[in-house]
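Q: Please design a sequence for this.
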């Protein structure tokens, strides 16, 4: 059964601790994480290690707190935003989740299609990605990937759970294999101390990409609500995504630097796993693992996109929206072809996603844990409507202070990221946006009593 935005009773929850770990590990060890690591290698392995073991774990704590809200109430991601945005206001969070989630497969599918061009080359001698005549093999790879992941997402969360278990095993094997091959060819000291060309971006720039990448996992609530206990929803999700994403970022960075040692050329556009695998000569099986890894990540993301639409429309037919998502992703997966370089699309997308979810998750966490002190009732989260269409919830249809804070935070992020990039290159766009969202909301609610009558 797919629940849509309805509350899931505790006795109907099917994900144990290790199911959550595996689900989020499978999402974290994705081709995008590998690609991100390959890009970040430009500023050195020390930054990559610091990110994997310090910055990423800290960054994902507020994200895991959303999982706790979802577990407590059996609530989807969209329903978790009801206290902060209002009952009707939360529908726009569903639109945001849909837009953010439907874009991820366009990135991951493109990377998987690159791998399939190498598989097609071995089978039929077709051109591989980057060679003349590779456009049609690339398009076929996109179609194959889109069909497979579309079928899985329509089946629902049970199929996703089992696919994640299979994919995680394959990905662990691939990650270990690739790491061993690199370290057999080059001493790690050479990798760590390699002097690369001057980096085009600062650490602050990568922090902004990381917030879009990490907080963009908006389906945290959609899977945490399936958890049997709070530890599974929070610690299980947090552990899985940190292990997966942190490890594959390191794998991607080591692989790219290994290729630099072999060829003498560093090109961030070749940070995708397939280019690294081809350079290291790992073979067809490795390319197929990348394909399955992509599908395992995309199905969780597409499921989140479907739940976002269900939350936006308050539909009672989630299967219908999952089918719509499966069809829509066909068109979305071809978007990277409109950009001259894939890396440009990657950076553009993460900037857009970061602008949405950096202020949104800041607002939800501040509202629920500080302003309301966790005193939110299920009947208010899932209230029906009156005859005039207004909500029966004490939380109200709209939380004006939440929307003002959200708008201010989003405005700061986009102003710095797109309008004042030199400032963002030093201070980031994310941290000022977080500060603006949190400070303005606390001032309005606790300082000027805006919305206090609806605090429960």
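A: Design:
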């Amino acid at each position: 059964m797919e629940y849509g935005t309805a509350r899931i009773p505790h006795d109907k929850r099917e994900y144990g601790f290790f199911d959550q770990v595996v689900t989020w590990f499978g999402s974290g060890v994705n081709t995008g994480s590998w690609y991100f690591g390959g890009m970040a290698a430009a500023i050195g392995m020390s930054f990559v290690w610091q990110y994997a073991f310090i910055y990423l774990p800290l960054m994902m704590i507020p994200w895991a707190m959303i999982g706790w809200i979802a577990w407590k109430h059996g609530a989807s991601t969209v329903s978790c935003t009801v206290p902060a945005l209002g009952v009707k206001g939360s529908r726009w969070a569903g639109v945001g989740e849909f837009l953010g989630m439907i874009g991820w497969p366009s990135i991951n599918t493109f990377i998987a299609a690159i791998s399939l061009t190498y598989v097609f080359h071995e089978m039929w001698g077709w051109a591989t990605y980057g060679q003349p005549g590779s456009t049609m093999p690339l398009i076929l790879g996109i179609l194959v990937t889109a069909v497979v992941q579309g079928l899985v997402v329509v089946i629902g969360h049970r199929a996703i759970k089992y696919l994640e278990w299979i994919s995680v095993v394959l990905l662990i094997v691939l990650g270990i294999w690739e790491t061993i091959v690199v370290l057999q060819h080059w001493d790690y000291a050479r990798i760590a101390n390699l002097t690369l060309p001057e980096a085009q971006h600062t650490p602050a720039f990568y922090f902004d990409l990381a917030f879009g990448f990490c907080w963009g996992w908006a389906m945290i609530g959609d899977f945490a609500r399936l958890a049997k206990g709070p530890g599974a929803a929070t610690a299980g999700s947090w552990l899985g995504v940190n292990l997966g994403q942190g490890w594959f970022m390191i794998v991607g960075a080591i692989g790219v630097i290994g290729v630099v040692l072999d060829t003498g050329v560093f090109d961030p556009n070749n940070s995708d796993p397939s280019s690294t695998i081809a350079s290291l000569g790992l073979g067809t099986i490795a390319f197929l693992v990348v394909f399955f890894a992509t599908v395992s990540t995309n199905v969780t993301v597409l499921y989140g996109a479907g739940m976002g639409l269900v939350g936006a429309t308050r539909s009672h037919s989630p299967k219908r929206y999952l089918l719509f998502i499966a069809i829509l992703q066909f068109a979305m997966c071809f978007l990277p072809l409109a950009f001259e370089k894939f890396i440009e699309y990657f950076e553009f997308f993460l900037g857009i996603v970061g602008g949405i979810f950096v202020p949104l998750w800041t607002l939800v966490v501040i509202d629920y844990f500080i302003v309301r002190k966790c005193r939110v009732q299920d009947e208010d989260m899932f209230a029906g409507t009156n005859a005039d269409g207004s909500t029966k919830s004490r939380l109200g249809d709209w939380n004006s202070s939440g929307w003002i804070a959200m708008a201010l935070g989003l405005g700061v992020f986009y102003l710095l990221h797109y309008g004042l990039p030199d400032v963002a290159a030093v201070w980031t766009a994310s941290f000022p946006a977080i500060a603006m969202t949190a400070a303005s909301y606390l001032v309005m609610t606790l300082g000027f009593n805006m919305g206090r009558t609806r605090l429960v």
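Q: Thanks. Anything notable?
A: The mean pLDDT is 84. The CA atoms of residues 401 and 444 lie 6 Å apart.
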